[in-house]
Amino acid sequence: MFRSGFVALIGRPNVGKSTLMNALIGEKAAIISNKPQTTRNQIRGILTTNSYQLIFLDTPGIHKPQHKLGEKMVQVSLRTLREVDVILFLVDAAAGPGAGDEYIMKQLEEVKTPVILVVNKMDQSGEEKAKEFAKHYASLFAFAGTAVISALTGANQEILIEKILPFIPEGPQYYPEDMITDQPERFIVAELIREKALELTEEEVPHAIAVEIVSISPRPGRDLIDIQANLYVERNSQKGIVIGKHGARLKEIGQRARQEIEALLGSQVYLELWVKVKPDWRNKVGSWQAFGLELE
Ligand SMILES: Nc1nc2c(ncn2[C@@H]2O[C@H](COP(=O)(O)OP(=O)(O)OP(=O)(O)O)[C@@H](O)[C@H]2O)c(=O)[nH]1
Ligand SMILES: [Mg+2]
Known about the structure:
The chain has 2 domains: 3-167, Rossmann fold (3-Layer(aba) Sandwich); 185-291, K homology (KH) domain (GMP Synthetase, Chain A, domain 3, 2-Layer Sandwich), CATH 3.30.300.20. It has helices spanning 17-25, 68-80, 99-109, 122-125, 127-138, 157-164, 185-199, 205-208, 236-243, 248-265; strands spanning 3-11, 43-48, 52-58, 86-92, 115-120, 145-148, 210-218, 224-233, 268-277. A hairpin with a 5-residue loop joins strand 7 and strand 8 (224-233). Helix 7 packs antiparallel against helix 10. The protein is 34% helix and 23% strand. By secondary structure, the protein is α/β, with parallel strands linked by helices. It has a 6-stranded mixed beta sheet, with helices on both faces. It has a 3-stranded mixed beta sheet with strand order 7-8-9. The two termini are 35 Å apart. The site of magnesium ion has 6 residues, from helix 1.
């Protein structure tokens, strides 16, 4: 019997949803950062074996929205709850319980889908503390299972898969076996640039960054791809920060992004980045599409 089904990853920002999805599929489909609200749309990661295909749906962290983009991100996450066979509710053992988790559990009460509690970052909190958290959460909600894991080290990942599989019905292979994500290459390239910009900026700047790919064009007769991209921020002061002294920060963003894009595309890359200001773009729904954010 071949099983196939959909698994949502839900939780507060920064709990490790994207890290876990990448670890489960063994590839980088979603970008990761130590800043909350990194993921902005639903990203599918696909794991195919001889006996099953699991389609993981990574989602934006659920938070109190401060702008229209944030509102839409949270809507995407809550909508995902209804599309799946099983939900993984991630909590951060290192950060501990919080009001944000309780809000999410209230939303989970509204859906009939089984929910597995995943206590992540056990490597950081220690196993004892992680297990204590698991007990605490289990007293608040009727979970269909619990796993204490580390997405970073891979600890207990197989145990988690074993807990997911009973909820996955018999079904067809929806995607080709070598496909790991539904994200277009163009979007992943934009996301890799954004990831490096997030790594190298602080405070309000990371949240204001969006990336638009202007062109991706292979150079005829050569193993080289030209990529031009615009990096948007919301204010002039942020533009200065992203560019850095004598352009040093932008150069570093470009170098780090280029290395990963070359690995992704299997070709040398010439990457040109420009920084532009688009005031308040996070509140302007029409501007999102250029950033690959189709959040309908
Ligand atoms: N120590 C430790 N760090 C982790 C673990 N999993 C994730 N992290 C770190 O936690 C931070 C957030 O990880 P992400 O995967 O981007 O978190 P997310 O839940 O997808 O965040 P949003 O997309 O903002 O909602 C990163 O710095 C990760 O390296 C883990 O198991 N252990
Ligand atoms: Mg994420």
